[in-house]
User: Which sequence fits this backbone?
């Protein structure tokens, strides 16, 4: 019997259709793309990107030259542009505004054949520090309501360059996905005076069957209402609403567990395409009026990372309903990922 | 300058990023899949599908034998199953219920090389009649809150069989996508005592630049806040909330304009993959308590069809924000599609 499950954060239903898992078309794999002839992210090509806004580089090296290990640069093809005013305007029943924002690339290594999952832990921590530093800096711009950090890995996940990189976008609106989660969290808090995510984590840890990995400060688990096979949530055990405030010690544990779940995925599923998205707090200092409930954000919101392997296609059913069909029960996915033996 | 646009129905922002349209990776095309060796939908293979629940066939022919042109059968791999009770249950903070529903396939032609876009109009009308008949029948089952009709065309759109077909699912919940639209429509109606969709259509027809095609009863246009390049909305000009009540005359005009927009897409974009989804009224006769605002559904809801070509990939930005990046302004898409010369 297929089972329908409801997610209390995003308030969506999914169908866990394990009875369909024998279908041959379930997991699609795109062919690996040829490496592009020219790679602007590689060491030596620094002048081919816009000037860096952040870098981890040897002390003897100079900005925009060789000698870096992690480098953050504005995207050459930004989806949003940094200069200008928002200019909100109505068009009959519609609304529009200028696409003001920022779009940056975190080049995670000078080597195109490297991968976030196999960087040394010291190197991986520096990627995490780049995330933190750019969040802190971009959120000083009061035109931006939200800063989204995400990673597209593999062609199926929408990555056009194989060189290891993540992306950062600063947005002039609170994105719908985050707004819905904020609302659920607020509702739970005002009912119970407890954080929804803390409650979820506590239930998951007690239950145990969906836990994938954990360390002193972080827990990775397969969400009860996973939309996708092998979907993963990763969150700090202790309440914390803002990734900007993560300490160096905790950042090391965060990057360590992130690398471990990526290794588990790579081994269990043969290097699948995936997206991960960091869900941190919105910018409470933004200019435009903010919802009154942001006043309690530090109590009711809990930052987390969402990882979705891109193994299946999304079709008319999902587009028409918003209900996802997942052929791999999260309990089974967690067991497979948990059982992977890491070095 | 990129532009952000807001959709008043689904209340989402999109980024119209026409400045990025030169990127070579914008439109991805999947290789055409080999036809499967065995095709259960073909004439002569009737015994390989579950028994038909509806068919348009010659009077001399018998059910589940040759002689049909349109045939509706339960899906052999249903995402939801027809027998059983809902058995709603809480699991700590989570909710679950049995996956009760229906999942049917509308086989649109006995010929695997046929296509909805090129069927004779009489044949196409019979596909529309199959939609209408199955909606009427499935909505008699008071366990079902919503019946979703959709079509996946091409591998990129999640279609695993090339034989021309659409799908019908009956759901025990009101899907989120529809619930959000119902809410927007209700809000607009209670503010203004006018249908939101009627107002949108009137604005679009007056403006004209996003109109793709029209006839006496229907208008096809590119939505102002299109998420995808060449996205199309198709709706009746006159207020009508429920596809079940469409007359034969109007059904002919509906299938005619649907075929015309498919032909326009096929010519302009070389037979792209696409999904279309019919957004009709939910089942107001369902057992479970229904939102009080369904009382005014016949005034505030307006059925429509949404068509999304699958030319681009969805990546971490969209998953993390719910904001879509569309590199083709809908005004430009409309002009291209409108300019296609049909026979």
Assistant:
């Amino acid at each position: 019997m297929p089972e329908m499950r409801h997610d209390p954060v995003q308030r969506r239903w999914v169908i866990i259709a394990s009875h369909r898992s024998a279908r041959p078309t379930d997991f699609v794999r795109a062919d690996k793309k040829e490496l592009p002839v020219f790679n602007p992210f590689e060491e030596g090509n620094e002048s081919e990107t816009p000037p860096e806004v952040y870098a981890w580089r040897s002390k003897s090296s100079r900005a925009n030259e060789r000698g870096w290990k992690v480098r953050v640069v504005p995207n050459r093809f930004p989806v949003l542009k940094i200069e200008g005013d928002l200019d909100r305007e109505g068009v009959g029943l519609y609304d529009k505004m200028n696409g003001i924002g920022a779009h940056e690339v975190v080049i995670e290594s000078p080597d195109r054949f490297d991968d976030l999952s196999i960087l040394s832990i010291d190197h991986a921590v520096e990627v995490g520090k780049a995330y933190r530093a750019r969040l802190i800096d971009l959120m000083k711009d009061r035109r931006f309501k939200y800063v989204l950090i995400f990673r597209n890995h593999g062609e199926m996940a929408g990555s056009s360059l194989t060189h290891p990189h993540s992306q950062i976008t600063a947005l002039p609106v609170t994105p719908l996905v985050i707004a819905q989660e904020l609302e659920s969290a607020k509702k739970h808090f005002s009912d119970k005076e407890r954080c929804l995510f803390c409650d979820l984590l506590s239930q998951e840890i007690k239950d145990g069957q969906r836990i994938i990995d954990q360390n002193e400060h972080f827990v990775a688990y397969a969400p009860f209402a996973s939309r996708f096979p092998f979907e993963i949530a990763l969150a700090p055990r202790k309440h914390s609403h803002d990734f900007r405030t993560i300490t160096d010690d905790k950042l090391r544990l965060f990057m360590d567990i992130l690398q471990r779940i990526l290794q588990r995925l790579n081994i269990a599923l043969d290097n699948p395409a995936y997206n991960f998205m960091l869900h941190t707090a919105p910018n409470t200092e933004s200019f435009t009026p903010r919802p009154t409930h942001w006043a309690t954000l530090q109590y009711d919101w809990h930052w987390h990372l969402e990882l979705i392997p891109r193994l299946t296609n999304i079709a008319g059913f999902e587009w028409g309903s918003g209900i996802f069909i997942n052929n791999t029960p999260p309990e089974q996915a967690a067991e497979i990922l948990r059982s992977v033996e890491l070095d």
Observations:
- The radius of gyration of chain A is 20 Å.
